[in-house]
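Can't paste images in this forum, so I'm doing it all in text. The chain is below; anyone willing to post the predicted structure tokens underneath?
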Amino acid sequence: MKDENFLKERNARSIWHPMAHPADSQKNLPEIIVAGDGVTITDVDGHKTVDGVGGLWNVNLGFSCQPVKDAIAAQLDRLPYYSIFRGTTNDAVIELGEMLAEFFAPDGLERAFYTSGGSDSVEIALRLARQYHKLRGEAGRVKYLSLKKGYHGTHTLGASVNGNANFRTQYEPLMPGCYHIPAPYTYRNPFNETDPEKLAQLCLAALEDEIKFQGAETIAAMIMEPILGAGGVIVPHESFMPGVRAICDKYGILLIADEVITAFGRTGAWSGSRLWGVQPDMMTTAKAITNGYFPFGAVMISGRVAEVFESDTTGKAAIGSGYTYSGHPVGAAAAIACLKETQALNVKDNAAARGAQLYEGLLDLQKKHEIVGDVRGGRGLMCALELVSDRATKAPIDKASIAKVHRGAYETGAMVRISGNNVILSPSLIVTEENIATILGALDAGLSAV
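Text version of the structure:
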């Protein structure tokens, strides 16, 4: 590693950062993180903080999970790479496939298609949805439905179904045939409805109305996050996702659960779909599947969808999608070790307990700080604060002020994530009661700085 002076001098000079203005990264230099242990990260100056972001929703088991690191090292020694394109495979992906089928059996999912990450998984699922309908003789089903405020990665299809203009406007025109439904977002919605159950029913009615308007025979799939993550941790009423499932069944539309964030215990259940008692037709996964230690993902596919592909005799079910690193043996080995450790530690229960502690603590901060307009969470380790300059008008707080919140929290002991006027918290699922107290104390200090 280069020395400290070199790193500080050249910080961000030769790279562009995702989700950031290139000039802003030059002016406001990012923190240089050089080490991680457990749930603690250390910057180039030796300043240690609790990582309240969990890497990027993905380091569920912390930064020093030895079984996963050992599995990666062992696989590199044995077989560092081989393709699983037609005609070859490797032992690690076979073992992982069996494990994933068993893990997701309660979600009705039986097959895995490997990818390199979350955006890849979304792209594959959306493509397979169209192919599924063509195989069934309904080639006109090509459109997609999704939620406003939803996030589904940054590939062209994923960006097209994204429900946030930040990921769309500079890249338009995107894919035609993508339509967005109001999200069950009680703090801001076009119905001015604050009751979660009533709002869920209004959004479901809007979904069915859009289906009728477009024509059900033209729609391939509805894609949604069980809990909206990057859009600001929007937790729907418990009736919402089951309602979406029922409407999709009514009109022959596939339901794709985007669980790149919510799978593997983050919601306090092993999957977000299971949290709401829903079995999707496909599920996108990535992030925590390898604890963030290796780029890897998988699309999980239901028996109903799999049967249509596997029973085809025309040759049209051949999957014309895939990536050089699909089924990478090192990623598969990491995922096997990660899944074993995830289950052995039963992290979903800790996520539920510590998530409740975090949510209650954030509600206390809302009482103390006028700039906290809304607190969202209460389902596992997914929480957010929405900061406003005026509670009555809900006007978003300015960028300079929210930057002070971020800086104040970091200096006091916790890394938090800023997205628009939201402070998002998604710590590792192994956090302790003391770690959560540290995050809350640091955030209190950050809010007090404004």
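The mean pLDDT is 96. The chain is about 40% helix and 15% strand.
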